[in-house]
Amino acid sequence: MRTHKQSDFARTDTDDFARAHIMFDVSHLLAWLLLTIVVPLIAPVALLALLALSRRFRHRARELLHRSIREGQLCWTAIALSAAATYEAADVLTRIALAGDTSGEIALGWGFVGCHVLIIVVASVIVLLGVMDAVLAEDAGDYTAGATPLLIRTSIGLVLFSAALSARSHMWAMAN
Predict the structure, then answer these.
(1) pLDDT digit string (tens) for 39-78?
(2) Where are the domains of the chain?
(3) Within a 10 A sphere around the Cβ of 73, how many other Cβ atoms?
(4) Is residue 82 within 8 Å of 162, Cβ to Cβ?
(5) The Cα angle at residue 122 between residues 173 and 109, in degrees rounded to 5
(6) Neighbours of 113 (CB within 10 A)
(7) What is the pTM of this model?
(8) How distant, in Å, are the alpha carbons of 74, 100, 144, 151 from that of 33?
């Protein structure tokens, strides 16, 4: 029968603590991804898909879903994601600066802030262009016209890029 030394128990407790800490970090990141990235991306599309359950809009659900994307409405999600990520990065930058750290983390943080601000500006312009196209089409009596395919692809790409960049900047913020 083997007897354990005190250091064996200490090592085991430390290993258990490290594993628990990693599991907490992973579950925290997954919860953050779900609530901050996945829900804002999927909720608007899922809610519009619910129109198919309504008798009045059942035959127009696909058209309304496409119209919301065509008019740049998904960019509101990119704006919200980038605004939240900008706040988080600026908060971390403040803490780093107050600690007197002059490492490359400050440059990376300002890079995240700059990219998110640029996304906010570009997404706002896309929303504006989508609304302008919709109004012009409506004035012309053509309710099926709207934004160009390039604007639609840019809108979708910008939302996905904003989500990925928000996740990356959040991981940077958690590490600092």
Answers:
(1) 887 877 777 777 777 777 777 777 777 777 777 788 888 9
(2) 6-175
(3) 18
(4) yes
(5) 20
(6) 20
(7) 0.71
(8) 18, 30, 35, 27
